[in-house]
Amino acid sequence: MRLKTAVLFLVTVGAVVLVLMVVNWFPLAVKKDTVRRYSTLEGVREELGRRDIYLPSYFPQSLRWPPSEIYASKDVLLMHFTHRETGELILSLSQTARGAGPLSSRIEPERIIKEDTVLLKGREVRLSLAVCGDGRPCNKALLGEGGYTFEVIFRGPVEELRKITESLLPEGQ
User: Fold this and answer.
1) Full domain range(s) for residue 24
2) Has residue 52 been placed in a domain?
3) Do the domain assignments include residue 22?
4) What tens digit of pLDDT does each residue of 111-138 get?
5) Do 21 and 44 fall into the same domain?
6) So what's the pLDDT on residue 49?
7) Which of 15, 18, 36, 114 could connect to 129 by a Cys-Cys bridge, CB 3.0–4.6 Å?
8) Which residues of 50-82 are buried (b: 16+ CB within 10 A; e: fewer)?
9) Is 45 exposed, middle or buried (0-12, 13-18, 19+ CB in 10 A)?
């Protein structure tokens, strides 16, 4: 009798889990503009049909590739990168179609020290020298290119942020 009850319980739990998985999957299959987490950029390309993923050609050697976190929808892409040795989150890259709302990064400047517009490869980039909550540098660059708004936040020297941001841009147009 106990074995029969245990088997019936396990079958019931399995059925409930299966139903919940289908209920969770259905909205994602129907609505592609829902932001969700992906394990790879290739997954973003395949599931959302996105071929327009911009990546910098320059990454500091301290960064670990691939991105540790990827969140995407048809209009928004957010990637987080960690430090190669410590595993600390140090770079956030966001690509948002113009008109779409941005995603919140897990790194955000808490206090802006100075903001300025600089030219990188002939394009205007809004550069914010800032610090995060722990008092360490947490600098940010904001720019528009090819119908997208890019936000780059780097927990490190502003010179490295400029190199990363500049490498996102194609040569002068």
Assistant:
1) 1-30
2) yes
3) yes
4) 999 999 999 999 999 999 999 988 899 9
5) no
6) 87
7) 114
8) beeeeebeebbebbbeebbbbbbbebbbbbbbb
9) middle
Tens digit of each residue's pLDDT (9 = 90 or more) over 31-90: 556 899 999 999 999 999 888 899 999 999 999 999 999 999 989 999 999 999 999 999
- Radius of gyration (Cα) for the chain, nearest Å? 21
Instruction: Report if pTM > 0.90.
Output: no
At 137-157, the pLDDT tens digits run 999 999 998 899 999 999 999
**101/17 same-domain check:** no
Are 114 and 125 contacting, i.e. CB atoms less than 8 angstroms apart? no
Distance CA 47, CA 95 (A): 17
CA distance 48 to 53: 11
Token pair in block for residue 89: 């989150």
In a domain, 9, yes or no: yes
| Residue 166: strand, helix, or coil | helix
> What's the pLDDT at 102?
77
Q: Give, in order, the Cα–Cα distances in Å from 77 to each of 2, 50, 100.
A: 51, 10, 11
Closest alpha carbon to 78 in 30, 147, 149, 144: 149
Statement to judge: residues 56 and 123 lie in one domain: yes
Instruction: Identify whether residues 73 and 109 lie together within a single domain.
Output: yes
- The answer to whether residue 130 is domain-embedded is yes
CATH number for 118: 3.40.1000
